[in-house]
Amino acid sequence: MSSNPGATMSLPAEMGKPLEESLDHLVSNSAASEGGGKDILAPSEVRADAVHSHGEKSKKWIKKFFPSEDTLDKLFNMEHMGNYVIDRVTGRKIFETMPIYVRVGMHLLFVSGCNYMSYSSVEKLLENQSIKQGKIYDQTGEGVKEHIQSFIDTYELPLDELLVKDLDQYPTFNSFFSRRLVPTARPITSPNDPSIIISPADSRLTVFPTVDQAKTIWIKGKQFTLPNLLTGEDDTETRFKQIQEDTNAALAICRLAPQDYHRFHSPVDGVVGDIKDIHAVNPQAINEDLNVFTLNKRSVMLIHANLGAGRESVPIAFVAIGAMLVGSIGWSKKPGDKIVKGEELGWFQYGGSTTITVFPSASGLVFDDDLVANSKKGMETLVRVGMEIGKVKGAAV
C-alpha cells in the first residue's frame, strides 16, 4: 500500500521505464558536486555593479537595452531551475546552485503543474533511488577522499573551519558531509541572554509570526496543520498538545542546501523533552492538493525552553525533516538532557534538509524585521548558526 494517499494511479509502462532509467543514470553517474557550484550573485546584482562602475549617468541609457531587474532574475531562475536567497550579511540577492540529481527531484516534487507524483510508482521510484544514492555516500575505500576534495573545491568550503582537517580521517563521504566545525566558527549571539533566539542551522531561513501567515505565503496546500506536522495526525499523541493547538504559533523554517554545514543546534536554552519519529508528509513540499513527499522522514523534539524571567519552561517543537537524498537524521541529545543556546542537537546525512522550529504564542517571540520583510516577499534569507533571528518581548502571561 502506498504511503501517499494521493498517489493512486499507475504509471503507464511507456512513461515509467524511461523515467526509471533516467533517474538511475543520474544516480549512478553523478557525484555530490556535479551540476552544482558555489552560490553566485543574481544577474540584477551583477548588472547593478556594472552600472555603478560606469557612473550614475549611464544608468538610464543602459536600461533602454535590457529587461528590468526582476525580469532578468526571473528569466535566469527559469532557465537554471534554481533559487534566489538574500545574503543577510551583505544584503545582496544571490542565486543558489544545486546538483543535477537534486534539481530533477525538486522539479518532480515542487514545480506546480508537474503531475508525476500522482503516480504511486513514481513515489516508490524516487524512494528507491534515494536509498541507492545514500548507499553510494556511505561507501568506503578508494575514491572517497577524491569525492570529498571535489565537493570542497566545487563549493569552495573553508578548511580552516573544520574540527578534523585531515581528509583521510573521513572514511565515507557522509562522514565528511556531517562534519563538525571548530567552536569559534559559529559565534553565538548574546549567549547569556535567553531572550535572544538564534538560528539553529546554516541555512536559507524563512520566518512567519503565525501559522496562518505561513499557509497564506509559503504553504499553498490544504493539508498543512500543526497537528499534521508534529504528530502525523496521531489522535492519541498528547505530548505536543500545548503547541499544536496554538493557531498563533510562530514558525522558523531553515532549508539546508548540500554545501551547508549539516549539524543543527539549539535555538534556545532548555531541557530536552520527548522525541517522536514520523514517516509522513514533508510540509516544505506541499504546494499542491496531493499529499506529496511522503517518503521523507521527520523527527520532532520537544524542548522545554528557558526564554527568560517568567518564561522558564515554554514548550517549543524542533522538527528535523529529511528531504531529497537524506538517508538519516541523527540526534546528539536525548530526553532529559539540559541544553544551552547554540549547543549541537543533531545532524543530517547527504542531501538538502529542513528544520522547522515552532514557537507557541506564549513564548512572546518577535522575529527580526529584516527576516519578516524578506519572508513576506517569498524570499529566503541566508543565515548561519548562532545569528540572532528574534527576541522574546513583553511580559509573560
Radius of gyration: 21 Å
The appropriate CATH architecture of the domain at 196-392 is Distorted Sandwich
Strand order of the largest sheet: 1-3-2-16-5-6-14-10-9-8-12
Number of strands: 17
Euclidean distance between termini CA atoms:
47 Å
**Main beta sheet:** 11 strands, mixed
Shape descriptor reads globular
Can you write the helix and strand succession as a string?
HEHHHEEHHHHEEHHHEEEEEEEEEEHEE
> Given the structure, what is the number of helices?
12
Helix content, binned percent: 25-40%
Q: Which blocks of ≥5 consecutive residues have pLDDT under 50?
A: 1-9, 42-69, 71-82, 106-115, 281-295
Mean pLDDT: 75
Summing up helix and strand content along with how strands pair, one would put the structural category as alpha+beta
Look at the structure and give the CATH class of the domain at 196-392. Answer: Mainly Beta
**In what range is the share of β-strand residues?**
15-25%
Give the CATH topology of the domain at 196-392.
Glucose Permease (Domain IIA)
Pfam family, one: PS_Dcarbxylase
Keywords: Decarboxylase, Lyase
InterPro entries: PS_Dcarbxylase
Protein name: Phosphatidylserine decarboxylase
How would you characterize the overall build of this protein?
- It is a single chain.
- Among the domains are: 14-29 and 58-114, no CATH class; 196-392, Distorted Sandwich (Glucose Permease (Domain IIA)).
- With 397 residues, the protein is α+β, with helices and mostly antiparallel strands.
- 29% of the residues lie in helices and 22% in strands.
- A hairpin with a 7-residue loop joins strand 9 and strand 10 (314-322).
- The protein has helices at residues 13-29, 43-53, 59-63, 69-80, 100-110, 120-137, 144-155, 173-177, 211-217, 226-231, 241-244, 369-376; strands spanning 40-41, 83-87, 93-96, 196-198, 203-208, 250-256, 263-265, 269-279, 297-306, 314-322, 329-331, 338-339, 344-348, 353-359, 365-367, 380-383, 388-392.
- The strands form 3 sheets. Strands 1-3-2-16-5-6-14-10-9-8-12 form an 11-stranded mixed beta sheet.
- Helix 1 runs parallel beside helix 6 (120-137).
- The longest helix has 18 residues, at 120-137.
